[in-house]
Amino acid sequence: MAPSRNLRTGFRQWRAHRPFWGGLLLTLAGAEILVTEKASLKVVLHIGVQGLAGYLLPTLMLLCGLLILFNPTQRLFYSLVGILLSLGTWLTSNLGGFLIGLLLGAVGSYLTFGWLPYQEPRRRPLRARGTGPTSPV
Length: 137
Description:
This protein has 137 residues and is mainly alpha-helical. The chain contains seven helices and no strands.
């Protein structure tokens, strides 16, 4: 039971030092858009650059998400590229993976851009019920 606890605490420490949720959402967005692309590569090459961009943009989104997870020092650049790629999939990849991938990529990029590495966690003040200025009379 101790090795699983050590593994869990190690993962929590690793996750605490990077924009985990933003990178994960951007990675999932790229994967979702790639899954929604059903055309084979032979058809895409006959269509031309527009068809190739349908595979290129989500692949780059997936790559940006992984780079955010494993190289968080460059998170601002990767998040800006990620939002531009997410918006580009609107035109190239079935309306951004039927809007799901587009929204996941946008939210992941926003979370990554807003993440601050050395900010202390916020603590909500504990209020007793019925006390304070907002309590009903």
